Task: structure prediction
Amino acid sequence: MKHLFNVLLLLAIPSIYAQNSLKGSVVDKSTNEPLIFANIYIPHLEKGTTTDFEGHFKLTNIPNGTFPIVVSIMGYETLSQNITFPSAEQLNLALIPSAIEMEEIIISTPFHKLQSENVMKVERKTIANLKSKGAVTLADGITTIAGVESITTGVSIGKPVIRGLSSNRVLVYTQGVRLENQQFGDEHGLGLSDAGIESVEVIKGPASLLYGSDALGGVLYLNPERFAQANTNKADASYNYFSNTKGFNTDAGFKTSGDNFKFLFRGSLAEHSDYNTADYRVTNSRFREQDFKTGLGYQKSGFKTELRYNINNSKLGIPGELGEQTTNKTPLLPFQEVTNHVLSSKSTVFLKNSSFDISLGLLYNDRKEFEDHHHNNGGNNHEDHQDHEHLEAALHMKLKTFNYDVKYNLPTLGKFETIVGVQGMSQSNNNYGEEQLIPDAITNDFGILATSHIHFENSDIQIGARFDHRTIDVISGLNKEFSSFNGALGYKTRIFEKITSRINFASGYRAPNLAELTSDGTHEGTNRYEIGNENLENEQNFQADLALEYKSEHIEVFANAFYNKVNNYIFISPNGEFIENTPVYNYLQDDANLYGGEIGLHLHPHPLDWLHLESSFEIVTGKQKNDRYLPLIPANSLSNTLRVEFDTKSVKNLYGFIRLNTYFKQNNVSGFETSTDGYNLLGAGFGGSVNLFENNLDIRISGSNLTDKSYINHLSRLKSDGIYNIGRNISVGLTYTL
Result:
């Protein structure tokens, strides 16, 4: 390893002293007028600036090589083009007026391109967009993305579901590293706050080529907030109030950057009481979350690195039977206390025409679950235990993970961009409580991959292959090994001037997790006695995706279809027996198929460019080989939104919307599920930015379930108890930026 880093340093020396600069201007293509405050950004270098009052810009300390530069501003098509250094010194750009929203660089795919340039279809939403719709938590917010739902336990605990697949079949990335936090449990949430997260990207389909095991169903990629631009400072604070839970989310942050060094930090706090329905409050659905994030960056012309740290502590009540109706915020028994630490580093060494990307992560998940009978005073389920320090955790697990990701971006050869890399993970799970849900064990992963993007005039091809090997060593003596070879092939082409098609074929895999292999006891959070199966094999899938997109200046139409064949699909099923009055469930395997898709329309008619009509429909069906339906498949849904956006003299970025979400009846249920009735949810909101003491104050007001509908979502874990989902909620948000 020492020799490897010495070689990298020697290779980097020629580029360290290459300090190029780029000057240019940005104008309106139709009028040739300069564009003020246009964003200029080089994603590979994470360097950016804005144009001045004459439309000019300047970037310095750029290494040798070829990099895409992205230029964007509201009201214009986003422009992306490759620039080669050291030959480039002056760049004059003209943007085309358009009512279509600005595009952003997609980070979750390997070549970091605009979505319009990507072979793979990726959904992207900003956290600001999710907050404007009144999302209480991050897990709640992602359900507004087409093809994404959430398995929920109240409002505090949610697990992403992508096209019918969830838990260990959906991989979550944060700060550039894979999140590991005992995600095998339905009642285990993300353990992440949306504070300090800029945007969310969703890959819908197998991404094992890019990320290895557990990306069989898709990837939820969370992009952290960017550092400040060079030689600037920025501070902001926000407060959000939610009427339904009498709760709040608040955060504050500061960031500063010089020529080389960058620094940021952000702290947040959220407290919510039991959520309300039209008829009652759901006892012990309350929660409290504290979060702190910080980052340090350093950049020279031939090298950049950043170190980020996040600690998140949550106390989450676990609702069950309805009880006393209060608005207190301290969780009752039973409850979880979960602490997540994520320490990550991301570095790039720029060579003459190539580069190395090195990402490292240290993660520590400390999970405690407290139950009634472990209370020292007899376990009374009351509010008198304001201090939880004297409680003893019935279940206490610590998960420690080190992961690495090293990629080499080869020099561009004609039409070919190519990346090769290695990824891996070393993980240990240890128990410290009286109860044991999964045993002490050590897991090791290693994977090697190669992928290429081939450019043609009107089309692109992406192809890749990967090999993975996983070992699981259980301290009690069970040793398992799993291997898989996977590949992907994608093709994007412009059929006509305004119609783009994408077709992707990809395989993926998932090794069985510890719970599926070794469980033998009561899983309190699910009221099941679970029995694992040490003979389980890899889940292996193959998915075909077809995406069509029509885009003109005033209308966008898309249609996505998928077919996903999963061999050896692992599922849990009751066997009809009871142990200690608890139903027994076994882990089994059978082949399965999932299919469906999304269609949508976005209309912004001329000359009413401020008016937006959006509609989308989602459908997914999941069946076993024996034609029985899979569990936890979301109901078909339809979303319709009317939105307006414009500026006034006193209010900038003024917007308003009204939304109707329709969830259809779910009759396609597994053997131990029941049907779920359909329902409609009405939401609305408005907001904008005003100048207060020469700084921006953003104001957001939104309402969800405005008719206070009593309903139960098919993916709610409280459905078996007949407990409704959240009722009417009005949220008010303020963000002040210095």
Observations:
- Confidence is low (pLDDT under 50) at residues 1-17, 374-386.
- The helical segments are 2-16, 127-132, 138-141, 208-211, 514-518.
- The domain at 123-737 is CATH 2.40.170.20 (Maltoporin; Chain A).
